[in-house]
Design brief:
Length: 240
């Protein structure tokens, strides 16, 4: 049995305050971009991996799409269910680790935004195999020719920012591109903190290699909205 991922504990605790984060405020614009890229008619099936509080899934459902959201955190899914009820839309919510999620149907597209489940490593996860397992499951969920949109952390940013002290103290491994850091969140009992791992952060070349190993091709990639390398975005099309 796989050990519990530390990120699950963090997101369970942080879920009630997640939508206060500044990066959640552009949901409508992000969904517009997704639909422009996917070019799918309403009624199409879309899988949202690492759906969190459901901000993209609920908006897509509001526009007539059949959406399934998958997330490792029951706390985040509770917030997603609340948002769907308030919007009066139907979304299928699945509590699952994306590395172990087995789709029972095929989808017209998959999205994994704000890195979704990518790079959120448990203490015992291999950084390469973790993300490849997610890609394999997404690939298995896509119809032939279906598209997948992913945003992921930019590894080049970490390389530029990391210091020799970070490497020596184990906070950043330049070989595996894994960083270790402490996350904090507020609870009724006060602040809690947890040491977590984030990694196999991406660059366009590594994305292309990962996609190719799953039998897919990358169409486009680019720097994320932070401008100086905050994220790497990519769309891919499945092919046989």
């Amino acid at each position: 049995m796989k050990r519990r991922n530390e990120w699950e504990e963090f997101f369970d605790g942080h879920a009630p305050l997640y939508m206060d984060n500044s990066f959640t405020k552009n949901t409508l614009e992000e969904v517009e971009f997704v639909l422009e890229e996917l070019r799918l008619p309403p009624g199409s099936r879309i899988l949202d991996v690492g759906c969190g509080t459901g901000r993209h899934a609920v908006e897509l459902a509001r526009r007539g799409y059949q959406v399934t959201g998958v997330d490792i955190s029951s706390g985040m899914l509770a917030e997603a269910e609340k948002a769907a009820r308030e919007a009066d839309v139907d979304v299928e919510w699945i509590h699952a680790d994306a590395t172990q999620f087995i789709p029972d149907r095929l989808f017209d597209a998959t999205i994994c935004l704000c890195e979704g489940a990518f790079s959120l490593l448990g203490s015992y996860d291999d950084p390469i195999e973790h993300d490849l397992a997610i890609l394999r499951n997404i690939y298995a969920a896509l119809k032939p020719g279906a598209r997948f949109i992913l945003t992921a952390p930019n590894g080049c940013r970490l390389i530029r920012q990391a210091t020799q002290e970070d490497v020596e103290n184990g906070r950043f491994d330049p070989v595996t591109m894994v960083e270790a850091f402490t996350v904090e969140w507020d609870t009724p009992e006060g602040k809690k903190s947890l040491l977590v791992r984030g990694g196999a952060v991406m660059c366009p070349q590594s994305l292309s290699c990962s996609f190719a190993r799953q039998g897919s091709k990358r169409n486009t990639s680019g720097v994320g909205p932070q401008g100086t390398g905050g994220g790497v975005g990519s769309t891919l099309t499945r092919w046989r």
